[in-house]
Amino acid sequence: MNKSIKEFFLQKNLDVKGNLASGLIDNINVRFIYADTKTGPKMCFMFVGYLASDQKAGIIDELGKDLINFTFSYNQFCILCDLENLSIEQAIVVIPNMIDKTISKLKENNFLSNGFCPFYGSVLNDEDSVILTKKFYNIKVSKECKRYLEGEKNEAKRAYSERKKHYLKGTLGALIGGVVGALIYIVFYQINMLSSISGAVAFLLGSFLFVKFGGKPDYIMIIIVSLTSIIFILGTFYIESLYDAHRIAVNSGLNMNWFDAFKLCYNVLPSFKENFWRDFGMNVLFLGLGIIVPIIQAVKYNRRYR
Questions:
Q1: Residues with Cβ < 8 Å from 112, sequence gap 6 or more?
Q2: Do the beta carbons of residue 50 and residue 119 sit within 8 Å?
Q3: pLDDT score recorded for residue 40
Q4: Cβ neighbours for 2, distance < 8 A, ≥ 6 positions apart
Q5: Domain 3-122 belongs to what topology?
């Protein structure tokens, strides 16, 4: 963590470990995560406690309008506040005001924090509280809360494991993604734009519609979406190449079918051959980038529910 940021939180009597800080500020449980990135420092504040969802929504709307350097959101445990695109020097100036205004607004709305379960709002005691481990931090909650969340998670896992595969319905969604990608390829090709980007579009839309139509987001989805996207995009590319070759032949006064025209242009015209393989390479590149989408989707679902 940056030295200036660390000193600021130490002055607030927060416990600082590495890029994490936690503790009480005016009896509000506060968590802080810091990260250095290529675009500059990124910081996330979490004000842990209980409020009804509609109250949280109203608070973050008011704070977002007043504190324009920060991005506010909420989850089931806390109000979140993100800060980026500012230097450390600029951040140090605006953070104290943000903390004061946020805590003041939370107290106005009877935010239940220290000593309360952030999920249920019930009073916590040593016998009825447990530590819930999250990705970057720990939260003390009631045992009832943990049982509920574990039950919810187990139910989600069960529902996913028992979810019907519906590969046929999912394939229909993937086919629609492939058709849309092919249409985009044709339109972009005709107006001399980067038509190969349609490969990534086919993968993105195909993956989305595969799940939307009821297909199970597993590793079979990767195969189905990949095959449909590759067939539609490379098939469209080949048809456009045949069309171009036939047009060249017609303009040269030759009367031949598309396949013969393609063979002639490929063997006789170096520029045609060069453009063919260049465009083929670009299509393969964007298809390769596009396949990342269903892979991430399948891995995410399987990790979440395994």
A1: 49, 50, 51, 118, 121
A2: yes
A3: 74
A4: 34, 36, 41, 88
A5: Yope Regulator; Chain: A, (3.30.1460)
Q: Which strands make up the sheet holding 40-48, listed edge to edge?
A: 15-17, 20-25, 28-37, 40-48, 78-83, 71-74
Strands 78-83 and 71-74: antiparallel
Nearest to 251 by CA among 264, 235, 239: 264
> Does the pLDDT value for residue 305 go beyond 60?
no
Sign of torsion, CA 209 210 214 218? negative
- DSSP conformation class of 123: B
Strand-strand pairing, 28-37 and 40-48? antiparallel
Q: What is the pLDDT of residues 98-133, one digit of tens each?
A: 999 999 999 988 888 888 888 888 887 777 777 767
* Global confidence as pTM: 0.53
Question: What is the spatial distance between Cα 95 and Cα 72, in angstroms, rounded to a whole number?
Answer: 13
Beta strands at 28-37 and 78-83: parallel, antiparallel or unpaired: unpaired
Cα distance between residue 45 and residue 273, in whole Å:
57
The position carrying tokens 């805590």 is 103
Q: In which element (H, E) is residue 36 found?
A: strand 28-37
Segment 42-76, tens digit of pLDDT: 888 889 888 888 888 898 899 888 888 889 998 88
Give Cα 77 to chain centroid, integer Å: 21
pLDDT band of residue 159 (cuts 50, 70, 90) is low
| Residue 45, both tokens | 């504040």
Q: How far apart are the first and last CA of the chain?
A: 34
Domain ranges, ordered by start, for the chain: 3-122, 167-305
**Bridge partners, residue 142, by sequence:** 129
**How many whole angstroms separate alpha carbon 139 and alpha carbon 131?**
6
